[in-house]
Amino acid sequence: MRKFSQVLTLVLLPVFVIAQHTVSGTVTDASTGDALPGANVVLVGTNMGAAAASDGSYTVTNVPAGSYTITASVIGYADASQSVDVSGDVTANFSLETSALELSALEVLASRAGEKTPVAYTNISKAEVEARLGSQDIPMALNTTPSVYATQQGGGAGDARINVRGFNQRNIAVMINGVPQNDMENGWVYWSNWDGVGDATSSIQMQRGLSAVNLATPSIGGTMNIITDPTSNQRGGKFKQEFGDGGFLKTTVNLNTGLIMGDKVALSSTIVRKTGDGIIGGNWTDAWAYYFGASYAANATNRIELYAVGAPQRHGQNLYKQNMAVYDPDFAKKQSDYDPEAIWNGQSYPNSKGEFTAPETSHTKDRRLFSQNWSPINSSYKGKQYWYMYGAKETDRHDPNFLNERENFFHKPLVNMNWFLTLDDKTRLSTILYWSGGSGGGTGTYGKIVTRDAAGKGDMDNHKFYYGPSPWTRDWNKQVEINSSSATSYDFQKKTYSRKAGESIGILRNSINRQSTLGAISKLNYVMNDALELQFGVDWRTAGIEHAREVRDLLGGDFFINYAD
User: Fold this and answer.
1) Which CATH number covers residue 6?
2) What pairs with residue 393 in β-bridges?
């Protein structure tokens, strides 16, 4: 009998050690007792949590034994927290107080979905945004949302994209504080315009499929509603310093005045500074971001808010797809349908600096960091680069030892004034007046650009680089040499041309975009009875948009002539 007891103890002990428990409860309105469906309940410091169901109940399963802080949050209510010791199943109920002074009525204008709206949606709170996002682009916070795919693409700051139910960004309405942000010409969204806005985001709602938005927006794929921080009724501030690989450094400062001037006015501001060399070669970033909010409550039924947000920035890009052998030649060779002629079998491979090194010093990790959008250049070349972003600038290139073929620079400020007026118990008027500017562009090449394949054979060698093995790279030094030489004839891709003294055969250009949008959104809500509510609205906007190309860098020459038909 003693032996049996010892065996039984050994068998059951592991079960007790790895026992998992359940934390459950309800989330309700403290004043009415109504359930708060969609409320987020999170075990702080873990990836465990749940959303409240339609009856306000939630359940978090597989919780290991231990002490936890549980936080419940939902838009329009103050967060609540409890400390619990989990040694068995635990019940934790939350009654949340409304935060009327902090809650902006922007949720009304942003056409957010609720429990009675026949739309699939996910709410992401500020705490979740901070935990998921870090210093990534805003779409990356939605990667765990059903039917949503977000990617950083080449890794450049602000170069992310998002797909919802298979639709790309041209068919996804993106709204910030109730204002549509899709490009009025092609519907695209450029996240570099909102670099740093994640630090001022109060919540995000992702509506999937045809949404509850009743504005003129391309929302067949879904709608992303981003609400920035409302002005806080508590005085205070925050300082955050972030460090990362690739020389990444980000500083965030936030200040709130709290309620002032007889508890009628509140101000809030956030400033972000971000720099870094980038992990992918040439993907440096040099960015600022700012956010300002102000609110004035004339009385209980009349409220005015002012918001301004923007992110002036420059960053190197990585936009070109690569032959798989560039990243892993051994893997490429194993593919049955891969053409081995595409693999460079010489004694060098590109590293993260765009240089060709011996295979034993260039590992797969280094090759993964390679980018064709930058290449080395002699620091003796002192040519200036011209660009325009709310003012003309003539500057040195970002680094004297390399030249970016693809760079993005842009500043798109958004300023909106919101007026919320309660006319009576049944009637409410909400209006936004907004202006959104935009100035900047992206760089690229124009004309004949000297390029070499992986074997080092270039366009000037009676050769076309794209017939050679991958990866090809730009030869900026040769380009500068030709552009700055005296009058001569030259061979380029098996053809002979002539040029004048100082004439550039190829240059860097800017593709510029300057725009200004003025708009107004107004909604009148009238509650006829408990079963019927009417809404009347106006969505008006006008825009002026300019597209052009201009010379950025003559690359050693004195002038450039476009001979294209």
Assistant:
1) 2.60.40.1120
2) 387
